[in-house]
Design a protein that fits this description.
The chain is of the alpha/beta class. It has two domains: 247 residues, Aspartate Aminotransferase, domain 2, CATH 3.40.640.10; 138 residues, Aspartate Aminotransferase, domain 1. The strands form two sheets. A seven-stranded mixed sheet has the order 1-7-6-5-4-2-3, with helices on both faces. A five-stranded mixed sheet has the order 8-9-12-11-10. The chain is globular. The protein binds pyridoxal-5'-phosphate. Pyridoxal-5'-phosphate binds next to α4.
C-alpha cells in the first residue's frame, strides 16, 4: 500500500517563512528557478518493462495525474512541511478532502462526534453519510465535557472540528479534546482552514489529521479551488490515497501551481491580515452602533487566553453584532452596513486579500433555519468580516458609512 513512503523533510530545521518558499522543490534537468507546471494527464515509459514496473509499484515514478503529478507533489510536500506532517495529499476542493477523510476512516455502524459550528457543507456531508449507516452527534465546540459525554465506546471513530469557529470565532481547546479522543481510541480531525499552519499546527497539539480548504487563505487571492489532507504517512498513504486515486477528485496541476505560489506569501499575508483585523476589531469595539465584537485577539473574547496559547495571532475573521430593537431592525441595520460599503466585497467567500463582508443569517446560515441559527448564535444583527490587505483605516471608514446614521 505504502507506495509513497514518508520522506524526511530536508528543510525541517529552517523557519516556516523559509520553508514556505523553498520546501518541495525538485528541479528538472533544465534548472528552472520557478516551479514548473506539469500540465499533463499521463507520463510515458521507456519500455513495456518499465511500464509494468511502475504499475506494479516496483519502480517509483509517475503514471497518471489522477494518482500523482510533479506540480501537485511539490504543493503537497510544501504544505506538509508547513504543517509538520509526515504526508499530504491534495484534492480538487476542501470538500473533497473532507469526503476522502470520511471515506477513509468510517464504515457503516460507525459514529462521529462533530462540532456544532462547522462549515455548513461539512455537516451536510456527514448527515449524507447517515444513508450509509454513519451517525453523527453535534456538540458545542468549547464544551470538552460534551465531547466526552457524546462518545459511544467502541463505536465512535472520529472527532471533527474547526477552530476558530465560523462565524463566532469560538476556540476549541485542542490539547483537552485530543486527550479525550486518545482516551477513547478516537481520531481527531481538525479543519485548519481559518488559521493555516502559519497561526496554528494542530498535529503538534494532538490532532491526528488536518484538512484544508486551500481555496481560502492558501490561495489567498480568490482564484482557484483546492484542498488537502495531512497526517501520518501510514494513514495518508494507506487509507486516504486508495480512496482518492479511485474516487478521482484530483487537484489540477495548474491549480496546484497557483496554490504553491500562494503558500510562498502565506506567512506575510497572514501576519498583515491578522494585524489589520486586530485594528479593525478594536475600532469596531469603540463604535456606539456595535453591540458586540467577536475576535480572538481582543481581550474581551471569552477565550482570549486559550487563543493566545494555541495560536500565534487572532486570525483575520471578525464577527460583530450591530444594534437593533428587534430582529427586523437588527437585520436592517446589518444590511445597511453592507449596502453602504463602497470598498468591501459582498461575498460569502473568505481568506482573500480583498476584505469581504457577509450577513450569515441570510446567506451562509440561511438554510439551517431560525432555530439552529439561534442555537449557533447567528443573530439577525451579526456580520462577518474577513479582513484583507487594504489599509485598516479605509476598511473602518467604509464600515462607518453604514454604522453612523
Ligand atoms: C470553504 C470551506 C470548506 C470547503 O472548501 P471548498 O474548497 O469550498 O470545497 C471547508 N471548511 C471550511 C472551514 C471552509 O471555510
Amino acid at each position: 500500500m505504502n507506495d509513497h513512503p514518508a520522506k524526511q523533510d530536508p528543510l525541517a530545521a529552517l523557519a516556516l517563512e523559509t520553508r514556505a518558499v523553498r520546501a518541495g522543490i525538485e528541479r528538472t534537468q533544465f534548472g528552472e528557478h520557478a516551479e514548473p507546471v506539469f500540465l499533463t494527464s499521463s507520463f510515458v515509459f521507456e519500455s513495456a518493462a518499465q511500464a509494468a514496473a511502475r504499475f506494479s509499484g516496483e519502480e517509483e515514478g509517475f503514471i497518471y495525474s489522477r494518482f500523482s503529478n510533479p506540480t501537485v507533489r511539490t504543493f503537497q510536500d510544501r504544505l506538509a512541511s508547513l504543517e509538520g506532517a509526515e504526508a499530504c495529499l491534495a484534492t480538487a476542493s476542501g470538500m473533497s478532502a473532507i469526503l476522502a477523510v470520511v471515506m477513509a476512516l468510517l464504515e457503516g455502524g460507525d459514529h462521529v462526534v462533530c462540532s456544532a459550528s462547522v462549515f455548513g457543507a461539512t455537516a451536510q456531508l456527514l448527515n449524507m453519510f447517515g444513508r450509509y449507516g454513519v451517525q453523527t452527534t453535534y456538540v458545542p465546540l468549547g464544551d470538552v465535557g460534551a465531547w466526552e459525554a457524546a462518545v459511544r465506546p467502541g463505536v465512535t471513530r472520529l472527532f471533527y472540528l474547526e477552530t476558530p469557529s465560523n462565524p463566532l470565532t469560538e476556540i476549541a481547546d485542542l490539547e483537552a479534546i485530543s486527550a479525550v479522543a486518545r482516551r477513547h481510541g478516537v481520531r481527531l480531525v481538525v479543519d485548519n482552514c481559518f488559521s493555516t499552519p502559519v497561526l496554528q499546527r494542530p498535529l503538534a497539539q494532538g490532532a491526528d489529521v488536518v484538512v484544508h480548504s486551500a481555496t481560502k487563505y492558501i490561495d489567498g487571492q480568490g482564484r482557484v479551488l483546492g484542498g488537502a489532507v495531512l497526517g501520518s504517512a501510514a494513514f495518508i498513504d494507506g487509507a486516504v490515497l486508495p480512496v482518492l486515486r479511485t474516487a478521482g477528485p484530483a487537484l489540477s496541476p495548474f491549480n496546484a501551481w497557483v496554490l504553491l505560489k500562494g503558500l510562498e506569501t502565506l506567512p506575510v499575508r497572514m501576519e498583515k491580515q491578522c494585524a489589520n483585523a486586530l485594528a479593525v476589531a478594536r475600532w469596531l469595539e469603540a463604535q456606539p452602533g456595535v453591540e458586540r465584537v467577536f475576535y480572538p485577539g481582543l481581550e474581551s473574547h471569552p477565550q482570549h487566553a486559550l487563543a493566545r496559547r494555541q495560536q500565534s495571532a487572532g486570525g483575520a475573521i471578525i464577527a460583530f453584532v450591530v444594534k437593533g430593537d428587534d430582529d427586523a431592525s437588527a437585520r436592517a441595520a446589518a444590511w445597511r452596513v453592507i449596502d453602504r460599503a463602497r470598498v468591501l466585497s459582498i461575498t460569502g467567500n473568505l481568506g482573500d486579500v480583498k476584505t469581504t463582508i457577509t450577513h450569515p443569517a441570510s446567506t451562509t446560515h440561511h438554510r439551517i433555519g431560525p432555530e439552529a441559527r439561534r442555537a449557533a448564535g447567528v443573530t439577525e444583527g451579526l456580520l462577518r468580516l474577513a479582513v484583507g490587505l487594504e489599509s485598516p483605516e479605509d476598511i473602518c471608514a467604509d464600515l462607518a458609512r453604514g454604522l453612523t446614521c
